[in-house]
Structures are given as C-alpha cells and as structure tokens.
Prior knowledge:
Blueprint: E1 50-51, E2 56-62, H1 76-89, E3 98-107, E4 116-127, E5 130-138, E6 145-155, H2 158-161
Antiparallel strand pairs: 1-2, 2-4, 3-6, 4-5, 5-6
Amino acid sequence: xxxAFVPPADLEPLTRHPKAAAPGRHIALHHSTCxxxxxxxxxxxxxxxxxxxxxxVDAQMPVQDWMQGGPGVxxxxxxxxxxxxxxxxxxxxxxxxxxxxxxxxxxxxxxxxGSDLQFHARILGRQRRKIYIDAIAHLGDPNAPVAGAHSxxxxxxxxxxxxxxxDKRVVL
Length: 172
C-alpha cells in the first residue's frame, strides 16, 4: 500500500512500560460512553484493543449495517474513527496518554458490510512529545490489507488537556 506519510528518520525508540497490559490482554482506556471503545454507546464501535507483542496492538470489529457508506460497504469516516481508536490506545503500552494530531488513512479496497475487520498497529517511535504509529486493517490475511493508516499523537497531561470540558461530558 502506497502512502505519502513519512515519519522522521531520527525517531527515538521506545520500550514497553513495566505496567503495560500483557500480550493478549485488553487495554482499558476511556470510559463507558466513548464512541470508540465504550460499552454504553448504542451505536458505538465497541472496540476492544488488545496488547500485542512488543509495541503492537490488535483489535477486531464486525462491520455492521449501520456503518454503511457506499452501497454495501463501510463508511470511510467510520473506518477512520476505528483506526484512530486502535492507534490512540497503543501509546498506553509505553505509559503515554495521547491525543491525535495527524491521521492519514489509505483506502485500498471496499470493505463489505458483514465483514470481520482486523486491525494491527505498531508504535514506530517518538520525537519529543510526538508518537508516530502505523496500522493496517485486513479481512483475515495480514498480507492483504484493505486499508492502512499513519498517525501522529502528542503526549498530554489528561487533567490539564480536558479540564475545561469535563463539565460538558455526557453520561448515559
């Protein structure tokens, strides 16, 4: 899959945090009303991101009828949101809460409704507060991706970053 995103050559390598979720374990991130991972959102993605080996994560998502964009296929925005959730969870492996500053998605093939979409993301490295990540989505064969994504996330202090928004949050 060809893309325009090129991470800096001088990325600092990262190591897994000693308290990171073990490979094969769920990485709990947000809250129950998060569109990406929350269980209490009726039409949310309900993604469960699992820690992989090293600095990788995996997730799967059934492509449901409500996700339709073009006739019989997933909407590109829904796919982008899923990539954002999967990649945005991975920095917890290095103990870094982050927010998205850049997300680029390459759509290679239409993804049919009723599919079981698999995601695999890996942390490439860090440059100051920026963490670079790439990911693929496939339908069962990791060597045949149907989409890919590249992103930059910035490390934040969660309390400071969201301070003025806590009183506006929705609780279902």
